[in-house]
């Protein structure tokens, strides 16, 4: 098997997208670090990859840049949609929770929390 076909086999398509074989790491995770200008050794360490796995990923990205970049942009869009959904969901949930009365057994804790908030607010002024 030549090196090019070995590198191709090192990147597989799973339900999570283009993935480094033998890991749960997809190429979009590598792309995040590349876009943030992380050096390869730090990417390798952050994602717990071997040198061979990282080399295969970087080679695949370079050789298939247009396809990988297009898929990466779709992933970013999906991430943003999910983030917005949960932000809205949590905003509504926090508003709802804020209207509920405190449990009597935890009133002292809530009073202490309010005192700490007030102290922080006065320090910021």
Q: Secondary-structure blueprint of this entry?
A:
Elements: H1 3-10, E1 11-14, E2 17-20, H2 27-35, H3 40-46, H4 51-63, H5 65-99, H6 107-124
Antiparallel strand pairs: 1-2
Summarize the structure in words:
This protein has about 120 residues and is mostly helical. It has one domain (about 5-125). Helices cover about 70% and strands about 5% of the residues. It has a two-stranded antiparallel ribbon. Helix 1 (about 5-10) crosses helix 4 (about 50-65). The longest helix has about 35 residues, at about 65-100. The protein is elongated, with a radius of gyration of 23 Å. About 15% of the residues are buried. The model is unreliable at about 1-10 (pLDDT under 50).
What would you say about this model in short?
By secondary structure, the chain is mainly alpha-helical.
User: Which structural class best describes the helix and strand composition?
Assistant: mainly alpha
| DSSP strand tally | 2
Give the radius of gyration. 23 Å
Q: How many H/I helical runs?
A: 6
What's the order of the H and E elements? Answer: HEEHHHHH
With strands numbered from the N-terminus, the spatial order across the biggest sheet is 1-2
Strand content: 5-15%
**Average pLDDT, to the nearest integer?**
89
Give the overall shape.
elongated
């Amino acid at each position: 098997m030549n090196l090019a076909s070995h590198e191709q086999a090192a990147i597989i398509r799973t339900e999570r997208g283009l993935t480094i074989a033998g890991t749960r790491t997809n190429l979009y995770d590598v792309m995040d670090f590349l876009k943030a200008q992380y050096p390869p050794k730090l990417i390798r360490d952050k994602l717990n990859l071997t040198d061979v796995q990282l080399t295969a990923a970087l080679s695949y990205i370079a050789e298939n840049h247009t396809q990988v970049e297009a898929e990466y942009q779709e992933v970013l869009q999906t991430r943003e949609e999910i983030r917005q959904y949960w932000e809205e969901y949590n905003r509504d949930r926090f508003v709802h929770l804020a209207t509920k009365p405190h449990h009597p057994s935890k009133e002292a804790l809530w009073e202490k929390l309010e005192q700490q908030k007030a102290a922080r607010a006065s320090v910021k002024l």
